[in-house]
Design a protein that fits this description.
This protein is mostly helical. It is built from twelve helices and four strands, in the order ααααααββαααββααα. The strands form two sheets. It has a two-stranded antiparallel ribbon with strand order 1-2. Strands 3-4 form a two-stranded antiparallel ribbon.
Length: about 240
């Protein structure tokens, strides 16, 4: 990629040496290739965001539809639905962002990816002593949220894993981490670390996880992303 000198100067002024150091290392010290990698990384992040914009909406709609089927259109108000303090606090924050008139659809749209991911976790405590109780999110999963993943069992089988809440949580957590990474402009050139694990996913593996989640939700959505995603083209054009 050829750039005019003043564009090179502008890019170098905009990116700190520490940040560019990641790309210089990946480029074996070649500053020209490092800049190309930086711009490629930006384009890859944009492509991932395009896929994630569809996936995140699909995930929250699929999960909220099952919560509604079990606990009613105002499921978030139903005290029979077990929610721990963490989920309730996140839900309350989302409710505060909803403008009048407050509707279920508006609330769902304000609940961030992390909220939906949290509903697939094992659950924590709610309330304060002496009436502090443990919320078991298997109650949310079995016969409720598991139905949001129509292709989940088939995908788990394809991965030679057992279909359960832990499997769904692991996939959604990795996609959530990818979403946070690209949203905060973190580099993808060397892949991404997974919090609390001694594991680093490559950009290719992250892409495979987005397709994996799509297949879990809807096989036609999976086919759509396979056809429309720009991520494979960019992965194949790495400088």
């Amino acid at each position: 990629m050829s750039m005019p000198a003043h564009h090179i100067a502008a890019l170098d002024r905009s990116v700190t040496p520490t940040r560019m150091g990641t790309y210089l290392s990946a480029a074996a010290g070649d500053p020209v290739r490092a800049r190309e990698l930086y711009l490629w990384d930006r384009d890859l992040a944009v492509a991932f965001l395009g896929d994630l914009a569809i996936l995140e909406v699909a995930l929250r709609n699929a999960m909220s539809a099952q919560l509604e089927a079990k606990w009613g259109v105002d499921w978030y108000e139903n005290t029979a639905m077990p929610l721990d303090d963490r989920s309730m606090n996140t839900l309350s924050t989302a409710w505060g962002r909803v403008k009048e008139p407050k509707t279920p659809g508006k609330l769902v749209a304000q609940c961030m990816f992390g909220f939906w991911r949290g509903l697939l976790d094992k659950g924590d405590h709610a309330g304060k002593p002496p009436r502090r109780i443990r919320c078991d999110y298997e109650v949310l999963w079995r016969g409720v949220l598991d139905k949001a993943f129509l292709g989940g069992r088939a995908q788990a089988r394809a991965d030679h894993q057992r279909w359960n809440r832990e499997y769904a949580l692991a996939v959604v957590s990795r996609v959530h981490e990818l979403r946070n990474r690209v949203a905060h402009h973190e580099p993808l050139v060397n892949g991404m670390p997974l919090p609390g694990q001694r594991t680093r996913l490559s950009a290719q593996e992250a892409h495979e996880d987005t397709l994996r989640l799509a297949a879990m939700l809807d096989r036609d959505l999976h086919a759509f992303l396979v056809t429309r995603s720009q991520v494979p083209v960019l992965l194949g054009s790495r400088p």
